[in-house]
Amino acid sequence: QVQLVQSGAEVKKPGSSVKVSCKASGGTFRSYTFSWVRQAPGQGLEWMGRIIPIFGTANYAQKFQGRVTITADESTSTAYMELSSLRSEDTAVYYCAREGGQFDYWGQGTLVTVSS
Amino acid sequence: DIQMTQSPSSLSASVGDRVTITCRASQGISNYLAWFQQKPGKAPKSLIYAASSLQSGVPSQFSGSGSGTDFTLTISSLQPEDFATYYCQQYKSYPYTFGQGTKLEMK
Predict the structure, then answer these.
(1) Which strands sit side by side in the sheet containing A18-25, from one edge to the other?
(2) Which residues of B touch A102 (CB under 8 A)?
(3) Distance between CA atoms of B93 and B74, rounded to whole angstroms?
(4) How many angstroms separate the Cα of B40 from the Cα of each of A25, A36, A41, A105, A108?
(5) Which residues of A are less than 8 Å from B101 in CB distance?
């Protein structure tokens, strides 16, 4: 069965960067795209961007342009999301989601806390 | 960006009730509309895609309809496990956008 397993919770200082991983199993990694979605405490879902591993190309939401980098490593079936210049408002749970036309599977989420 | 507006924001209902949640897009999105269910502390779960197609393994009490700008999610007979927050999402164009969510609570 398909599983997306994300890396563990992180605590970061303002101004630093965080890199979250999402390891896929149970499917053909290069046949799908992978999106990153975040959810601030008590808030809704916010799409950040996505990558097409077979091409290595990424699309980003304008809000995060310049601060987010999404990459993928086909050899390990892992997608990554790196967010830089962290501020307190970036405290959120970050999810990866597999997109096979639509978001069919999600990772378990990674809590990133930004605090001085 | 395409704005997605859900209504209501919250809803109280009882087991066995029929419930409808609506989602309106700020511009036409054809049928590029998905619905998700989220329970506290859990990742969203896909229910419906392409506006009306049921995701594999999702119970048949869930159904979706609509096209263009107006969409609905219907739960035909609420079960105890259906109390959760529901989100719509458009995937017609970047950035993909979600509705603000509808919290379904037990009356």
Answers:
(1) A3-6, A18-25, A78-83, A68-73
(2) 34, 46, 49-50, 91
(3) 25
(4) 25, 19, 11, 18, 12
(5) 44-45
Tens of pLDDT, residues B35-56: 999 999 999 999 999 999 999 9
Beta-strand runs (E) in A1-116: 3-6, 10-12, 18-25, 33-39, 46-52, 57-60, 68-73, 78-83, 92-99, 103-106, 110-114
CA distance A19 to chain B (A): 19
Per residue in A54-111, pLDDT (tens digit) is 998 999 999 998 999 999 999 999 999 999 999 999 999 999 999 987 899 999 999 9
How many Cβ pairs closer than 8 A exist between chain A and B? 54
pLDDT digits (tens, 9 = 90+) for B49-93: 999 999 999 999 999 999 999 999 999 999 999 999 999 999 999
Instruction: Quote the radius of gyration of chain B (alpha carbons, Å).
Output: 13
CA–CA gap between residue A71 and residue B81 (Å, rounded):
36
Structure tokens at B40: 């506290």
Examine residue B95 and say whether the peptide bond preceding it is cis (omega within 30 degrees of 0): yes
Give percent of chain A above pLDDT 70.
100
* CB count in 10 Å sphere of residue B98: 21
